[in-house]
């Protein structure tokens, strides 16, 4: 959260085409015939990829699509990628009666390593409720991982291309109770089951793989160790350890973070001391406005307390300090006509909404606090 320097009365500080026969005859062909055969292979491979990736969930007879459909290799700078789609049970405890959902995973290797035998690394995204990164080039941790592994980026169920849950799609479930029951199938236990479903179909001989869990992905990694250790060669965690002691609720975890939040606020205002006055002016303006805030473009209200949520992204992300500062630089509209009232700029309000909105990933808001609950953890 973003700390606000303001009077206490205003705000509290903080918070299948089988082509195998072609290989057997290629050695007997002339160079011209070999070239034609090569072009034929490429055309058929492309057709196979297009057909595979366009298979609908259900065919004309109502039969469900295959459990696993793999696409063809394609490229971004420095990387080769291949898309996989899996049809999995919504409810693994009742597989036969359960409906099916689609899980999307992207396989990534360094250029030239498509056919090389390498161990697999499955990445578990943080969140909850966020899809895996979409690589645009060979960089960062993916570049490093691809030196030794085939990387698998699985969109966790309900996110990205894995039967995504959006505000509009969830409106199809009219009953609040039925929606709550449906959402129980999107927790860490189901994510682990999806990962195992993929591993035994993707990894040769269903060998164990390495799991890299980032933030909430670390929670899922520990759940993986508890529920399916046979599928794991090793588990790597980056800042995501689930609460395993008594009383480790979301509130207790947040309280443990207060010291770091204060430290981040102090660092920010030390770097940009001119923003102290700007934030004070914004808080005073919001508090004195009708209804205790100003309208947001989406129809909500920006209040002093809501302003503090900027710290969630601004104080805890790469280049967040700088982005936050440049946002505060444009907090106010210029006075074009003498006597015109002072008002917060539409630029500031739109930028605020873009930073704090979870409209595209509602699972974060729905499941975030429950992942810290000791009872829920055991229920996984």
Automatic annotation (TrEMBL):
Residues of the AB hydrolase-1 domain: 143-281
Pfam families: Abhydrolase_1
Coiled coil: none
Gene3D superfamilies registered for this protein in UniProt: alpha/beta hydrolase
Full protein name: AB hydrolase-1 domain-containing protein
Protein species of origin: Gossypium raimondii (Peruvian cotton)
Domain of life: Eukaryota
InterPro entries linked: AB_hydrolase_1, AB_hydrolase_fold, Peptidase_S33, Serine_prot/Carboxylest_S33
Biological processes, Gene Ontology terms: proteolysis
């Amino acid at each position: 959260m973003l700390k606000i320097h303001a009077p206490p009365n205003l705000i509290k500080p903080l918070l299948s085409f089988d082509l195998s026969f072609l290989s057997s005859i290629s050695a007997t062909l002339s160079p011209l015939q070999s070239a034609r055969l090569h072009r034929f292979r490429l055309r058929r491979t492309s057709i196979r990829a297009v057909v595979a990736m366009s298979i609908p969930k259900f065919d004309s007879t109502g039969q469900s699509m295959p459990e696993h459909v793999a696409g063809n290799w394609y490229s971004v700078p420095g990387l080769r990628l291949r898309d996989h789609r899996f049809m999995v049970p919504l409810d693994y405890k009742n597989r036969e009666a359960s409906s099916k959902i689609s899980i999307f995973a992207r396989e990534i290797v360094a250029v030239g390593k498509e056919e090389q035998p390498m161990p697999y690394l499955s990445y578990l995204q943080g969140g909850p409720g966020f899809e895996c990164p979409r690589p645009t080039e060979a960089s960062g941790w993916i570049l490093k991982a691809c030196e030794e592994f085939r990387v698998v980026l699985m969109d966790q169920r309900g996110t990205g291309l894995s039967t995504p849950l959006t505000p509009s799609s969830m409106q199809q479930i009219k009953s609040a109770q039925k929606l709550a029951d449906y959402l129980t199938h999107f927790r860490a236990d189901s994510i682990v089951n999806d990962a195992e479903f993929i591993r035994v179909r993707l990894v040769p001989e269903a060998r164990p793989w390495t799991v890299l869990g980032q933030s909430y992905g670390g929670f899922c990694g520990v759940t993986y160790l508890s529920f399916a250790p046979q599928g794991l060669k090793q588990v790597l965690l980056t800042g995501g350890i689930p609460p395993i002691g008594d009383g480790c609720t979301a509130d207790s975890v947040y309280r443990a973070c207060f010291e770091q939040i204060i430290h981040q606020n102090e660092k920010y205002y030390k770097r940009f001391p001119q923003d102290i006055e700007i934030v004070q002016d914004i808080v005073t303006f919001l508090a004195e406005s009708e209804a205790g805030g100003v309208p947001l473009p989406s129809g909500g209200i920006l209040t002093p307390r809501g302003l503090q949520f900027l710290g969630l992204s601004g104080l805890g992300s790469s280049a967040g300090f700088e982005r936050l500062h440049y946002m505060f630089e444009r907090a106010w509209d210029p006075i074009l006509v003498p006597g015109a009232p002072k008002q917060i700029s539409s630029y500031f309000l739109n930028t605020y909404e873009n930073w704090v909105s979870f409209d595209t990933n509602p699972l974060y808001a729905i499941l975030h606090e429950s992942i810290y609950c000791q009872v829920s953890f055991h229920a996984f």
